[in-house]
Specification:
The complex is a heterodimer of chains A (288) and B (190).
Chain A lengths: L2 H12 L5 H13 L1 H18 L1 H13 L10 H34 L68 E7 L4 E4 L4 E12 L8 E6 L3 H5 L5 E5 L2 E3 L2 E11 L3 E9 L5 E10 L3
Parallel strand pairs in A: 2-9
Antiparallel strand pairs in A: 1-3, 3-7, 4-5, 4-8, 6-7, 8-9
Chain B lengths: L1 H14 L2 H19 L6 H18 L11 H21 L19 H20 L2 H11 L4 H8 L4 H20 L2 H7 L1
Helix pairs in contact in B: 1-2, 2-3, 2-4, 3-4, 3-5, 5-8, 6-8
């Protein structure tokens, strides 16, 4: 009997459509033919899978979902959007800085002009800021502090980390042992380094079904590079001390760290585990 | 709030909601990559693992007594961890293993091995099913989803009952051959 006939026969057997004599001879064959038994199992399985329309729909959807780019290494395509965004910010910053410097320097640059110079809008009272009162030899007092134009920095250091960025603001894990989140910084932080160092405070709250160990949480500081996070290579690990506060636990940590300009990520993890509980990012700008 | 979201995830798996599944994918992939990369896994392994875990949960939630006893992300991660641990054992003959973590034992209680095997079988089935032409895929689904012969012939624009029947057996034959040739099927049959 060829395979095609066997397929028909097995289907009829599964659908209870064999007459008595065919059924007897089929069952006799089954008893002695391991290959036929394997075919019967396989076909039974195939029919069950085919009949499960919801599962097939799910499988199709999953197949599509995982086609979404998620490769953290070749991220040129995805990064191009953030490149454009950063360049736009850079160009706008340059324009704004240029305009502010230009307008602030106006009195000194053209002292003979009778027309009063244009001043940047400030909250300072005009009486204290008239050009006549500004000594010609001095620089104007109101040049706004800005960070260095991004174009002078390495744009790669400011690219968003594709694996961590989507996790900001969402509770990534929790419930099983500990849930934790940042209360400070509650949103992405923008810092300016002083002599290459940055200082800021991290506060947060944690809860757990059972009393956690005091040092159950760690704060990890990662660069913006996907590989560093994926290979679990933080720049720094900070132990966090949990302090009991009513039904939850608080933690607090002063960070004082040498960091070059760039984008960094704070990741809360349970000690010795890789799964992030909460994620926040900080952007470090170079000081003037 | 978290419970509502978790229930939302479970509902999305039941119904195959693309948008929510996409969210789960984006949320869980970093953890999966960090789980498997140190033990030699690739991004494709992580994608397979993600799909297997969702399918396993789909099967699990068909059971009337199913309840989510932890946060969805913990449950999902635990399932992935166990699937990956078992795959590692097979791939490396026990040379590469994940550290034991009793926290995730809860997901492997009860019928874990059955569910894991069923999930593997589903993966084998779907891998073969996708290799069939669109016509074959549609015809087989119609036949086994309780459509009448008239509906099938009309939907597939087939001329005769005999032809439809012959096509079905041909498609089914091709499907089972593809499955038999899958190394995962051969491993399962050992």
């Amino acid at each position: 009997m060829n395979k095609q006939q066997d397929i028909e026969l097995i289907e009829q057997y599964l659908d209870n459509q064999l007459n008595e004599s065919d059924l007897t001879s089929f069952e006799a064959r089954l008893a002695n033919d391991a290959e036929l038994r394997a075919s019967l199992d396989l076909q039974r399985h195939v029919q069950a899978e085919l009949a499960n329309a919801a599962q097939i729909k799910l499988l199709h959807t999953l197949h599509d979902v995982v086609q979404t780019p998620f490769d953290p290494i070749p991220e040129k395509e995805a990064a191009s959007k953030s490149y454009i965004a950063w360049w736009m910010i850079g160009i706008i910053t340059l324009f704004v800085v240029g305009y502010l410097i230009y307008t602030a320097l106006q009195p000194a640059a053209s002292p003979g002009q009778s027309q009063p110079p244009v001043l940047p809008k400030t909250d300072v009272q005009p009486a204290e800021q008239t050009p006549a009162q500004t000594p010609k030899s001095e620089k104007p007092a109101q040049v706004p502090k800005t960070t260095e134009p991004i174009a002078a920095l390495n744009p790669a250091d400011f690219q968003a980390n594709r694996t961590l960025d989507p996790l900001i603001g969402s509770q990534v894990r929790g419930g099983g042992a500990i849930e934790a989140s940042f209360t400070q910084p509650a949103k992405p932080l923008n810092l300016t380094s002083q002599n290459g160092r940055i200082r800021f405070l991290v506060n947060g709250i944690a809860s757990a079904d059972e009393q956690p160990e005091k040092d159950a949480l760690q704060l990890l500081l990662f660069s913006n590079r996907d590989a560093d996070f994926l290979n679990n290579k933080p720049i720094q690990k900070f132990p966090l001390a949990l302090v009991h506060a009513g039904e939850s636990y608080n933690f607090s940590k002063k960070i004082d760290q040498n960091l070059k300009p760039g984008l960094y990520y704070l990741v809360l993890v349970e000690k010795d585990l890789n799964e992030p509980l909460a994620v926040q990012k900080i952007r470090v700008n170079r000081s003037n | 709030m978290a419970e509502l979201r978790d229930q939302h995830y479970i509902e999305a798996i039941k119904t195959g909601d693309r948008v929510v599944l996409q969210t789960i994918y984006q949320t869980m992939m970093p953890s999966l990559l960090r789980l498997i990369k140190p033990t030699g896994g690739s991004i494709d392994d992580a994608k397979d693992l993600f799909q297997d875990a969702i399918v396993l949960i789909f099967k699990k939630i068909q059971q009337p007594d199913f309840t989510l006893t932890s946060a969805f992300s913990t449950y999902f991660y635990g399932i992935c961890r166990n699937i990956w641990a078992n795959q590692l054992k097979k791939k490396s003959s026990g040379h590469v293993t994940l550290e034991e973590d009793t926290k995730y034992n809860v997901v492997t209680d009860g019928d874990w091995h059955d569910l894991e095997e069923q999930t593997t079988r589903t993966r084998i089935f779907y891998r073969a099913f996708r290799q069939l032409g669109q016509d074959c895929q549609q015809l087989l689904q119609l036949f086994f989803q309780q459509k009448t012969m008239e509906e099938i012939m009309q939907e597939m624009q087939l001329g005769s009952y005999d032809y439809a029947r012959r096509r079905k057996y041909l498609c089914k034959g091709k499907l089972t051959e593809l499955m038999k040739n899958d190394p995962a099927y051969q491993e399962l049959s050992r």
